[in-house]
Amino acid sequence: MTPRRLVVGMSGSSAPQLGEVFLRACRDLDGLETHLVMSRGARRCIELEMGVEPSAVESLATTVYDPADMGAAPSSGSFLTIGMVVIPCSMAALAGIAAGTASDLLRRAADVTLKERRRLVLVTRETPLSLIHIRNMETVTLAGGTILPPAPAFYHQPETIDDLLRHVCGKVLDQFAIPHDLFRRWS
Length: 187
Ligand SMILES: Cc1cc2nc3c(=O)[nH]c(=O)nc-3n(C[C@H](O)[C@H](O)[C@H](O)COP(=O)(O)O)c2cc1C
Prior knowledge:
The protein has helices spanning 17-27, 40-50, 54-58, 91-99, 105-115, 131-142, 161-175; strands at residues 4-10, 32-38, 63-65, 83-89, 119-124, 146-147. By secondary structure, it is an alpha/beta fold. A six-stranded parallel β-sheet has the order 3-2-1-4-5-6, sandwiched between helices. Helix 6 (131-142) links the parallel strand 5 and strand 6. Helix 1 (17-27) packs across helix 7 (161-175) and helix 4 packs across helix 6. It is globular, with a radius of gyration of 15 Å.
């Protein structure tokens, strides 16, 4: 079976733990490759909020790209993927994606995902939201992307922070129809 490739972007937002838990979950799934693009902002947030080296998170991915390398595989639509998630997604990354700037590999890969009509999921983290943020979310939604804020749910009766993170990551995998057991479903 040809492995499915998922492009995973991490940008400079609070809660880089979301990206770590997501990559860890993907690593445990058969037949799924993760292609990670981590912005400089994400690296800073990992250092400040997780107190670890970014390489500890990078080591969870199948392949890691330099965000400045515009010649890397995810910059081309001919590199076949099932889509892209940006987790977490900063308002700066959201703005760049909404504006189609393609100014670094993360934004270019998201641009490619939209133009190829593949699934793009943005786990946008900011609160409260300005009208600029909301309008950028609208633009990406109209272009076919999905805005998936890491809003906590309690129907699965979380007991730990990890339970809350796993719920968000499971909701992302649901968007790609990838089976998982990251949280107990409502039934
Ligand atoms: C510790 C820390 C936490 C941050 N949290 C957020 C956040 O939650 N949401 C956000 O949009 N920006 C946040 N920022 C600001 C972004 O990192 C900054 O706008 C950066 O330029 C984003 O660029 P990037 O998306 O290319 O990584 C944070 C910055 C730091 C240092």
